[in-house]
Amino acid sequence: MRKADKITTYDGDITKHNCGLSEEDLETIRSNVSIFIHAASSIHLKKGLDYMAQQLLHPSVAIAALARSCANLDLFIYVSTAFSSTFLRQGSRGSPDGLDAVIKEEVRPIRSDPASASMDVEAELSDLAAYGSTPEYRFVDHPFAYSYTKHLTERVIERDFKAAGLEDKLLIFRPSVIAPAAAKPYPFFERPGSAPTTLFAASCIAHPPSKMVFSTQLDSPSKALVDAIPIDIVVNRLIAHTAARTRGHVHAVAGEGNRLPTERLLEVCMMLRQPWWPKPTIEWRNEDWKSPSLCRLARLFVGAGAAFSFEDGKTKALWEKMDEAEQAEWPLFFDTRLLFDSKSMRAQGPNVKKLMAMSIKQSSLPKDMTVKFMCRSFS
């Protein structure tokens, strides 16, 4: 594509005014670009709200404004997260019996009155600017500042597009947990550190042989499910919905029947520990998912004890419209459980070991020797 001159790159910075672009570059974009895909985002889940506002909220709102200034705008796609509405827990309307909430392909206001949604956004932005936080963040059980900021960003962008009469040119695209590739460019492809499921495996193997404490509000931890989707399937869904000019909100998720039980993921990860590296005991408690009594891994993967059901009806409807050749070329569904059987996990071994080496901070032995001591060989 580069040789065919189909890609033009700009040296910019989305945290700066006008994305750090020159007036000439901005004019070129405004005159020629019809589709925006905004996927740039910080994924530092442990960062605070002020950091997320500066790195995620304000740049995204600015890029959306740039898109609305384009004369030929056809579609603006904001890549958010399926977990933006996971402050909805058990007891929410539509929750399956004994499980967490059904997350619909829509934006759910945090306050109960939908009619005041626009006013709520203004109040939140004012509070955030004045105090560095908001009541909606402090008093609602969000997993991270990241997920709340994504939720707020969705609502601000949606408000601005409606105010401009351009709501029919907006797609909010929500992937769940990103997993290594199913097939393209090759099976298990990932950039080190970009797939949370691989980080989960590396952390399980490196965990000391003590106790791992996880949180769940489910009536049984056996009901906890991980919704993870391979990165190439995410890309396929993004391209397919862009081509179909889908509007509104779309989930890119494993979906019903394709989610992985958390207990099974833990079991497979523990199988990768060396036999002389004892396995930790695992304890489940009905505590807040950010409780200090939880193990470090549980506080990072706060959804490990949850079982959210993300609707993906728009993708199912799109799939039905595709012919057999299109479905073969652009698969939109994948049974994620296939990535996490013992054989597949061994195939992901090199990436797991890279992450282990990156995460080991202190050891009396060289990092590679420490990794070999903890983790089985994958040859």
TrEMBL record:
GO terms, molecular function: alcohol-forming long-chain fatty acyl-CoA reductase activity; alcohol-forming very long-chain fatty acyl-CoA reductase activity
GO biological process: long-chain fatty-acyl-CoA metabolic process
Domain annotation Thioester reductase (TE): ranges: 4-236
Cross-referenced InterPro entries: FAR (IPR026055), FAR_NAD-bd (IPR013120), NAD(P)-bd_dom_sf (IPR036291)
Reactions the enzyme catalyzes: a long-chain fatty acyl-CoA + 2 NADPH + 2 H(+) = a long-chain primary fatty alcohol + 2 NADP(+) + CoA
GO cellular component assignments: peroxisome
Top EC category: oxidoreductase
Enzyme Commission (EC) number: 1.2.1.84
Keywords from the named record: Lipid biosynthesis, Lipid metabolism, NADP, Oxidoreductase
Keyword Nucleotide-binding in record: no
Task of the protein: Catalyzes the reduction of fatty acyl-CoA to fatty alcohols.
Family: Belongs to the fatty acyl-CoA reductase family.
Designated name of the protein: Fatty acyl-CoA reductase
